[in-house]
């Protein structure tokens, strides 16, 4: 379990796996307008960031060949801007790396600057592997206006 923060003004954030049918995961994604149709499909892994025993955010990835698609990165609107999103994203990337993934991709309509700060770069869809473009997120669930981003996990 990843632990971040301290016991003072910024209490410990714990990072742990959750099931795709976790009700709080679905609620938070729906509230943020992110896809929930395929949470129970095979090949996905989800994680929660909890503070004080309460889920403050979630994130996950799905495997596409030797790459992963980061997805469902969401933080409770009441605690945004406190570092929870960074903890979740780094935790999900660590999990994907530990699973042997070489590159991480993601789609976002509004959070590209946040992911750029973490190390992702914007890429053209034509440069993405077919296995990523064929995920339900890339092929149909996300709007065509979504920006595609990539990060090399070996670096
Ligand atoms: C994008 C999103 C996940 C970011 O979550 P967040 O918890 O607000 O993110 P963080 O607090 O880690 O980072 C936001 C900013 O707060 C700052 N920050 C404030 N306190 C911080 C702390 N203690 N530690 C680290 N960063 C801190 C960071 O510098 C960061 O600035 P940056 O974006 O310029 O790097 C969140 O806005 C969200 O849920 N959006 C809706 C869903 C979405 O669009 N998801 C992406 C597509 S899957």
Helices and strands, with pairings:
Blueprint: E1 2-4, E2 13-18, H1 23-31, E3 44-51, E4 54-64, E5 67-75, H2 84-98, E6 103-108, H3 112-118, E7 121-123, H4 130-133, H5 136-141, E8 147-152
Parallel strand pairs: 5-6
Antiparallel strand pairs: 1-2, 2-3, 3-4, 4-5, 6-8, 7-8
Bound molecules: coenzyme A (COA).
Defining traits:
155 residues; alpha+beta; Aminopeptidase; eight-stranded mixed beta sheet; globular; binds coenzyme A
Explain what the structure shows.
The protein is of the alpha+beta class. The chain has a single domain (2-152), classed as Gcn5-related N-acetyltransferase (GNAT) (Aminopeptidase, 3-Layer(aba) Sandwich). It has helices at 23-31, 84-98, 112-118, 130-133, 136-141; strands at 2-4, 13-18, 44-51, 54-64, 67-75, 103-108, 121-123, 147-152. Strand 5, helix 2 (84-98) and strand 6 form a beta-alpha-beta unit. The mean pLDDT is 91. Bound molecules: coenzyme A. Coenzyme A is lined by residues 10, 32, 34, 71, 73-75, 80-86, 108, 110-111, 113-114, 117.
Describe the structure concisely.
By secondary structure, this protein is an alpha+beta fold. The protein has helices spanning 23-31, 84-98, 112-118, 130-133, 136-141; strands at 2-4, 13-18, 44-51, 54-64, 67-75, 103-108, 121-123, 147-152.
The whole-number mean of residue pLDDT values reads: 91
Please write the CATH class name. Alpha Beta
For the largest beta-sheet, the strand count, sense and barrel status come to: 8 strands, mixed
- Tally of individual domains: 1
Find the CATH superfamily. Gcn5-related N-acetyltransferase (GNAT)
User: H/E series, N to C?
Assistant: EEHEEEHEHEHHE
CATH architecture: 3-Layer(aba) Sandwich
Number of helices: 5
Report how far apart the termini are: 23 Å
């Amino acid at each position: 379990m990843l632990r971040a923060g301290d016991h003072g003004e910024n209490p410990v954030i714990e990072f742990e796996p959750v099931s795709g049918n976790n009700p709080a995961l679905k609620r938070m994604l729906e509230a943020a307008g992110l896809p929930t149709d395929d949470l129970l499909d095979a090949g996905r892994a989800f994680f929660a960031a909890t503070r004080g025993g309460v889920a403050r955010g979630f994130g996950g990835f799905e495997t596409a060949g030797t790459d992963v698609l980061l997805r469902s990165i969401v933080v409770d609107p009441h605690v945004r801007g406190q570092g929870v999103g960074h903890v979740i994203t780094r935790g999900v990337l660590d999990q994907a790396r530990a699973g042997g993934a070489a590159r991480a991709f993601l789609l976002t309509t509004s959070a590209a600057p946040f992911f750029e700060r973490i190390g992702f770069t914007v890429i053209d869809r034509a440069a993405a592997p077919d296995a990523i473009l064929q995920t339900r997120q890339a092929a149909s669930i996300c709007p065509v206006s979504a920006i595609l981003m990539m990060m090399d996990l070996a670096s």
